[in-house]
Amino acid sequence: MWRHVQLNASRELSSAQIRMASLMIDVCLLGDEEFSYALLEAEEGGTCIIDKLLHLAVDMPNDDPLLQMSALDQLERLSTEPLQTIRAEFLIGNDVMREGLLTLVGGSGSYDEIDPVNGPAALRLLTEICRVGVSSAISLSSMEESTLEKFQLLLTGFHVALQRFQPQGELERLSFIHATSSLFASCSIIACTSSVESSASTAGLTQYILADKALLHDWLSLHSRVAQPKLKSAVLCSMAQVLEPHLWNSESVQTQPVSTADVRPNDAIALQLYQAFTEANNNKDAMELLLASAKSPFVEERLGAYTLFKALVMRGPILQLMLLHNDDSGNISFLVWLLNHNSESTSEGRIAKYQIVNTMMSRSGSLIGGLIPDKMARELKLWNEQGPHYVKSIPWEMATE
Q1: Alpha carbons 269 and 150: distance in angstroms, whole number
Q2: ω before 65 within 30° of 0 (cis)?
Q3: Which of 41, 56, 138, 348 has its CA 20 to 30 A from that of 208?
Q4: What are the backbone angles phi and psi of residue 319, rounded to the nearest 5°?
Q5: pLDDT value at position 161?
Q6: What's the predicted TM-score (pTM) here?
Q7: How many alpha carbons lie under 13 Å from residue 319 in its C-beta half-sphere?
Q8: Which among 360, 356, 355, 351 is positioned nearest to 389, based on CA atoms?
Q9: Among residues 82, 203, 90, 80, which one has the least CA distance to residue 144?
């Protein structure tokens, strides 16, 4: 039926093609067995049904950009969690899709500019494909070397495209932030997978991105977004998600404990990213920047800072640096802010601050014991035990004076 519709040049049948594509994707999302059927070639020497969708989505030049946009949206649904192995391998290793998407975003040799109509949709799809590399449900080490090599080609081309991309307006800047963080997260995860033979070359790409000062400035700079708290929050959250990729799934964060076995960059890459954050903001101390955002009058910016703090306290070496930062009075500035219950008035903010305490005590409790005063340690322990709405009590004598 689809072959008959595609052979008919009538634009009126475009909606019929998308409806069939949507039904096909619904079936593919059921599991590996169903998706494998979509990859089977037709008996009469035709292409598989997935190739028909790729034909609509990535063929260039394309004389029906609206149909192409709808096809790209359907392909994006294939990145829906939870991912199965065959679907993940298709997303990161399909040559036709990789070349077509990189062409649309300006990362291919003959195309150096993003497509004005469907470039943003292709950028979103590439961002989601990059996140396949950090999915806790997929083991990259179990995939074939040829598939990982193709994934590395996609990451390299995507890096080139982001170097050329000049975002205009809030929506494009948000897309750029998410795309860059997803790219860096995938590169760092593969580089830390010791069983992957191509990890050495991917580690080189990770270091190349860390050395790309212009790209990191566009991603991590807060100074260029002084009046845009939503964008500043996006920057902080994206950095947190790179450090702790499980934070991409907010539901799992709240319902499941964090395991040290989760897929995540190593501490060396985490420290380099923390330093890059400082350099991207005119070499201003990272703790000062984060505390300024944590004290912002805008709740979305504060929540972004809390999310990043939660990720940072999971990293022992970074937490030690945070606890060595003192204020003008010689006190640990991070803990002075954290233990000030009056600094946050919203319920979601109080819960977020408690999650920082809970994470720090559960993941690094033994580490901080000798680094902070006993009084602060006791108050952190009490807050952790009492829950998010704990408030330090005032002695009766003081309250009545």
Answers
A1: 23
A2: no
A3: 138
A4: -60, -40
A5: 94
A6: 0.87
A7: 23
A8: 351
A9: 90
